Amino acid sequence: MTFRVALSGLNAASTDLSVTANNIANSATSGFKSSRTEFASLFAVSSQGATSTQSGAGVRVSNIAQQFSQGNIDFTDSSLDLAVSGQGFFILSDGGALSYSRAGAFQLDRDGYVVNAQGKRLQVFEPSPTGGFNTGSLGDLRLLTGESPPNATTLVETIANLPANASPPPSATFDPADSTSYNAATSLTVYDSLGAAHTATLYFVKTPTPNEWTTRLFIDGTAVGGVEVLQYSDTGQLVSPAGGDIAFPAYVPTTGAAAMNLTFDFAQTTQYGQNFAVNSITQDGYTTGRLIGMDIDATGVVQARYTNGRSLPLGQVALANFANPQGLQQLGDTNWAETFTSGQALRGQAGNSGFGLMQSGALEASNVDITEQLVNMITSQRNFQANAQMLSTYDQITQTVINIR
User: Fold this and answer.
1) Closest alpha carbon to 154 in 296, 336, 282, 55
2) Does residue 121 have a pLDDT over 90?
3) What is the CATH number of domain 155-283?
4) Chain CA centroid to CA 143, Å
5) CB neighbours of residue 308 within 10 Å
6) pLDDT band at 405; cut points 50, 70, 90
7) If residue 160 lies in a helix (H) or strand (E), which one and from where to where?
8) Distance, CA of 28 to CA of 210 (rounded, Å)
9) Phi and psi dihedrals of 130, rounded to 5?
10) Where are the domains of the chain?
11) Which terminus of the chain has fewer Cβ atoms in its 10 Å neighbourhood, N or C?
């Protein structure tokens, strides 16, 4: 009996050493979570059911408990590296089979999908056509390398001041090539439906009527419509057209794009002082854009940035949590699988209740404390030596009994 008791102690100490060795070996593994060996005593049940006089039957390893404490956040130079500060696991898909990980070292594969070193694809909540993200289903995160589509200009907002003391220009007949036929002009770039740029120029002419101006629009040197009237009050505020909007006739570009229908908002133009000044002139169109980078914010929203200044959402990184994370099954490569003991995965977004925040350009380090593990190693070694000595001692006793004559 004593042999079996000591042998159980040797086996338990050996398992403890193996767990400690594995922890130390993975002290530099991103997202790794250390484990702890837990023991339970063994007692043989007597035929009378009495236990008060029983000697122990040894020890067994009752559990190897995973420790999901937070690891340090180490910053890197890759925007695809992700770390979760708080609770939550990244969701990975391998042909539809889901696994979970705290290791956020991601990269792009040849098809533009964001994957880990084993080729498993990072899962996101995909953008909804009506805005936001569809949290009811998961999708693979794919970084689109194609061009961002253009958007034709439809609205131009102008903030400018026309001089109150201006006189009608010397030349009564308007000619854009004759600067004496208008008081002021300003230009901007507008875009057609194919993303081609065009130069739109506004000309302003003071009329003999007090507080009245006319304006003309030319695109690429071609007149668009005719004369439009701007009427100001005696305090310099625009009174006509009502609301300040002037919709010019359609302009058909030579690029083969759709007709351009431009509306100019003059509501914030004024007639003050002695100087013509354009404070701001903005339009809502943009040309095509090439992908230049990707940003991931603290809530996991992935934005693709393009050269045309646009930023398009590609998805929101999905996180999962479990009622009992220690019940997760380890798969290797710092991945876990859901089990009955862990409970069903609860999905959510970073920053929501029960989930931590996400850090782009960072990795979560292993939560292994080397000093603690070295102390555990010494303790396990002493336990192993003590049980080995017990075997040796009982062997000597047995030999003594055998040698009695």
Assistant:
1) 282
2) yes
3) 2.60.98.20
4) 12
5) 20
6) low
7) strand 155-163
8) 79
9) -95, 5
10) 2-69+367-402, 73-147+290-364, 155-283
11) C
